[in-house]
Amino acid sequence: MQQGKYFSLLRRNMHSCTFNRSRLLAFLLVVGVTLVIYYLLPNTLPDSTRSVEPLRAYDMTTTNKLIVTVNVTLKKSSNQIQVFYRETLPLQKSRESHPPSLEVLLLHGQAFDSKTWEGLGTLSLLAEKGYRAVAMDLPGYGNTPLLDIDKVDKDRADFLLAFLNAVGLQAPVVVSPSMSGHFSIPFLMFYAQRLKGFVPIAPAGTNLYNADQYQKIQTPTLIVFGELDTNLGVRSLKNLKYLPNHSVFKIPTARHACYLDEPHLFHTTLLDFLTKF
Ligand SMILES: *[C@@H]1O[C@H](CO)[C@@H](O)[C@H](O)[C@H]1NC(C)=O
Ligand SMILES: *[C@@H]1O[C@H](CO)[C@@H](O)[C@H](O)[C@H]1NC(C)=O
């Protein structure tokens, strides 16, 4: 009798022990599933109406990063091209302290693409400051296919205009290093009214136009180049200095890709230029 009571008590304890363990397992399972859903959910949220690639970088805690493609149709040839770009949108909080209207379009040099500006932190920095920042892959670079428009400068300006219209950039400040000058300089000549500001960084193609043509452009311009860039840096300055409203920032001891050599100096100067609008 005594013994039976003891065993039944033991059994009950064992039973409640396994019961507690399975409750604990169920609890851990629920917590685990919740965490997995929590971390996966931002990646599965759909973007607006644009055609969207997988949102590989969507960080809700700092900036709203989007990785997007947009179809750009060229009027002249009716050629359609799917242009890849990265975009950061200002946070709600910083939207209040800055006018959200300022847009920045980041172009890139020959050895680079839109990822360069993500890696350098420029995209998220601009979003932090309350700006809408777009970094595009030019035709034949990054994830944008090659487009046969390289012959005529007006066609390259038209391509950039079609991109601006497709992604809804009204009048961005355009940051244009090196090779991208083949696009931004014609754009400056043909569509200066769609440029709020211009930040050429030792751009190519400035010699297509003469001093008279530069003198007619009122766009506020920040000319940036590296002190050690004695080739394109110096040659582009010779033409760009005819722009009536310009300032020059020569980055000490920096080479052609001066924004990569001195990202902090470059960012500080760029942000300072942007506060003037
Ligand atoms: C863009 O073009 C591609 C291929 O032509 C097509 O599959 C896609 O649906 C288009 N996207 C949009 C948003 O029109
Ligand atoms: C020159 O550009 C600055 C912005 O960098 C602007 O504030 C200023 O009004 C411009 N000056 C003229 C004469 O347009």
From TrEMBL:
<keyword id="KW-0963">Cytoplasm</keyword>
<dbReference type="Pfam" id="PF12697">
    <property type="entry name" value="Abhydrolase_6"/>
</dbReference>
<dbReference type="InterPro" id="IPR000073">
    <property type="entry name" value="AB_hydrolase_1"/>
</dbReference>
<keyword id="KW-0378">Hydrolase</keyword>
<comment type="similarity">
    <text>Belongs to the AB hydrolase superfamily. ABHD14 family.</text>
</comment>
<keyword id="KW-1133">Transmembrane helix</keyword>
<keyword id="KW-0812">Transmembrane</keyword>
<dbReference type="GO" id="GO:0016787">
    <property type="term" value="F:hydrolase activity"/>
</dbReference>
<comment type="function">
    <text>Possible role in granule neuron development.</text>
</comment>
<feature type="domain" description="AB hydrolase-1">
    <location>
        <begin position="104"/>
        <end position="182"/>
    </location>
</feature>
<keyword id="KW-0472">Membrane</keyword>
<keyword id="KW-0735">Signal-anchor</keyword>
<protein>
    <recommendedName>
        <fullName>Protein ABHD14A</fullName>
    </recommendedName>
</protein>
<feature type="transmembrane region" description="Helical">
    <location>
        <begin position="21"/>
        <end position="41"/>
    </location>
</feature>
<dbReference type="GO" id="GO:0005737">
    <property type="term" value="C:cytoplasm"/>
</dbReference>
<dbReference type="GO" id="GO:0016020">
    <property type="term" value="C:membrane"/>
</dbReference>
<keyword id="KW-0325">Glycoprotein</keyword>
<dbReference type="InterPro" id="IPR029058">
    <property type="entry name" value="AB_hydrolase_fold"/>
</dbReference>
